[in-house]
Write a structure and sequence with these properties.
It is built from 15 helices and 22 strands. The chain is α/β, with parallel strands linked by helices. The structure holds NADP nicotinamide-adenine-dinucleotide phosphate.
């Protein structure tokens, strides 16, 4: 990196090549510049690879598969454990890379490294817990078994908002199961994934077991979806691209995990603890500058606590600062690009035009920064309540009864995360069961963990990542019927 700002203690982790079949290679055309969203400075370049490179990577992963799948689970687990140790050793450099290419604060980037490394640690152990079943035979003289085996070559396509964790969440369980992987990180933030692949090599991941490609999304993605060698695609990103990939994978009947967009509601009930509600809203809305698929996009507050909540939440939001991710005084960093700033501005304008009251922040803070912003008295049909804002704009809507709150919360095609703050156990039970979402945070805005199943329902996708459920996504069940015994 050209300046001291965010310089790496181990410069070799800033890579400008991709990994295919154990070789680090460049592309033929002009490389892609990776820019720091805070300074606009180019911090590195990555190859512009296409379909042919993707097919080479798929072939390499297919060649590597029998050897990797044939190793003992303990052996694969040891490689993952060493990889985890290396990520922890290089935590500071990885966090700096994340802050530089993504813009999030260094504190959040360090948190992401811990979270991302956690998947490698968890699946290092989980590799040894892939069990089969013996089924009581309905016919004498027979033995029925169900075994689990790795699905084969897998592809992992990830977004820019968590450049390390979205990749470890896929690669960890895939390799633990015995699969091999072709990875493609987002073009805006590819450097962290390349560094992660470099550490994998050091940990002893054999050639071809992990391949990491940057470049044309359509070219690489198209090769992956068309290939009958690739038996599974795990994609995290927008619902729009997820739908397209779902269709593209139909012809080869791949297994799919689709972790797509969200539109998470936060319901705050009259009996909620005020401090907990404010903290939940602050974390669920503003973490990662609001650029999280599980960000609370709509905050519904019951009438009895509405004014008290707004006063306390406004004070909290007014105290937040947008700035350079490397400045410890910054609470949130810049957004990823100009289109992201424009989208947040559009949602704010629409909310204010619809009668909303601006209680904190307001807008553009220079460059790609956007002040943490709070608008009250938003109408349920406001744009910010219907579409994923993906930015630091909180809109608050009031509701009356529990049923009205639930109806508003579920009035969306999406169903990734939802949050609620209340103290009455009956309210918690009724609402958490009634919410149409894959995950529910109760009196907390921080729900992600390598140990828990992450994923959505409705248009938020298919499958689960994290926990033992995340490993199942990379395993096929094979039934053995042994007769004549
Ligand atoms: P995106 O535009 O869908 O891109 C995601 C990934 O897909 C990137 O690597 C992108 O490559 C690639 N891609 C784009 N077009 C493709 C194609 N035709 N074939 C194959 N790959 C293609 O999403 P994003 O803007 O990066 O991420 C934000 C979205 O992700 C939000 O909707 C957010 O909610 C969602 N998200 C969901 C989760 C979850 O777990 N549910 C987690 C994080 C984010 P390029 O970068 O090269 O275009």
């Amino acid at each position: 990196m050209s300046t001291q700002r965010g310089a790496l203690s181990e410069p070799d982790l800033l890579l400008s090549q991709c990994l295919i079949d154990g070789e680090w290679i460049g592309g033929e055309g002009a490389p892609i510049a990776v820019d720091d969203p805070f300074t606009g400075e180019t911090i590195g370049t990555v190859p512009r690879l296409d379909k042919d490179h993707a097919n080479r990577a798929i072939d390499a992963a297919a060649r590597a598969f029998p050897g990797w799948a044939g190793r003992t689970a303990q052996d694969r687990g040891r490689v993952l454990r060493k990889w985890y140790d290396l990520i922890v050793t290089h935590k500071e450099d990885l966090a700096r890379l994340i802050t530089r290419e993504n813009g999030k604060t260094l504190a959040e980037a360090r948190g992401e490294v811990d979270y991302g490394a956690g998947f490698m640690e968890f699946y290092a152990d989980e590799a040894t817990r892939v069990m089969g079943e013996t089924i009581p035979a309905p016919v004498p003289g027979r033995r029925l078994l169900a075994e689990r085996e790795p699905v084969g070559v897998c592809a992992a396509i990830t977004p820019w908002n968590f450049p390390l964790a979205m990749m470890t969440r896929k690669v960890g369980p895939a390799l633990a199961a015995g699969c091999t992987v072709v990875g493609k990180p987002a073009t805006a933030t590819p450097l962290t994934a390349l560094a992660f692949a470099r550490l994998g090599e050091e940990a002893g991941v054999p050639r071809g077991v992990l391949n990491m490609l940057t470049g044309s999304a359509a070219g690489i993605g198209g090769a992956i979806t068309a290939s009958s060698t690739v038996r599974k695609l795990s994609f995290t990103g927008s619902t729009e691209i997820g739908e397209q990939l779902y269709r593209e994978c139909a012809g080869t009947m791949k297994r799919l995990s689709l972790e797509l967009g969200g539109n998470a509601p936060l319901l705050i009930f009259d009996d909620a603890d005020l401090a907990t509600a404010v903290e939940t809203a602050a974390v669920a809305k503003f973490r990662n500058s609001g650029q999280s698929c599980i960000a609370a996009n709509r905050i519904y507050v019951q009438q009895g606590i509405y004014d008290r909540f707004l006063a306390a939440f406004a004070a909290r939001v007014q105290g937040m600062k947008a700035g350079d991710g490397f400045d410890p005084a910054s609470d949130i960093g810049p957004l990823i690009d100009r289109a992201a700033v424009d989208k947040v501005s559009e949602h704010r304008d629409a909310a204010l035009a619809g009668g909303g009251r601006l209680l904190a922040g307001g807008g553009d803070a220079g460059g790609l920064l956007f002040h943490p912003t709070l608008v009250a008295d938003v109408t349920p049909d406001a744009q910010l309540a219907c579409e994923e804002t993906f930015g630091p704009l909180a809109g608050v809507i009031s509701f009356g009864t529990l049923e009205q709150g639930l109806q508003l919360a579920n009035d969306t095609p999406f169903g990734l995360a939802a949050y609620m703050c209340a103290q009455d156990p009956a309210t918690i039970a009724r609402v958490s069961r009634g919410l149409e979402s894959g995950m529910v945070g109760i009196n907390t805005g921080l729900i992600s963990s390598p140990h828990a199943p992450f994923g959505g329902v409705k248009m938020s996708g298919l499958g689960r990542e994290g926990s033992h459920h995340g490993l199942e996504e990379y395993l096929n069940i094979k039934y053995l019927c042994h007769a004549g015994l």
